[in-house]
Amino acid sequence: MNIIVFGPPGAGKGTQADNLVRNFKLHKISTGDLLRKEIDNNTVLGKKIKSIINSGQLVSDDIIRNLIKNILSNKKINNKLIFDGYPRNLNQTKELDILLKKYNIKISCVLSLNVDKQSVIKRILGRQTCSNCGLTFNEYFKPSTKDNHECDNKFLHKRSDDNEGIIINRYDTYIKKTLPILNFYKEQNLLHQVNGLAKIEDIYKEICHIINSIET
Description:
The chain is an alpha/beta fold. It has nine helices and eight strands. Helix 1 crosses helix 9, helix 4 (61-72) packs parallel to helix 5 (90-102) and helix 6 (117-125) packs across helix 7 (164-178).
């Protein structure tokens, strides 16, 4: 099973992808995680990536393609994948399609989480990530508590690119460059629209229903 989770920044792709990873034993491919790993390692590439992200722009397709290619070439995981927010434009879509065919990988379904701009802004401004365990929370919708988070709250932090100006720019970029690729997957009968404004658990139930209908 290989799945693509799609939607604007702050749509909840990461949260739903994490749930699918746990319950369906998948390996998540998040370009954001791959890029931040380079940044955390303070490599030359990481410094370049950090500058691009902080300006609200998208990292070049060449950088992304090489990072993705390294994952797809791993035969231990390359048919148990979930793509979190990738591809982001038509060029990446076509390049991914070529790589998938090269490694004999087929996409089972594409899930598109639909969320409006104002909801995206509020979600992202409240987003917090634990630097110790990697879990993501939201001070408005899903705050860190003793019941759902074992780490001290001192580990919670916000990403440097989580400010309103950058958020609006990223959302508009998504609408302009990323949303059109849904037609590519729609033509292949892979696309499934999901209400991203519902409660987290309800969104996940809808996603599981879609996956189960495909498997049966």
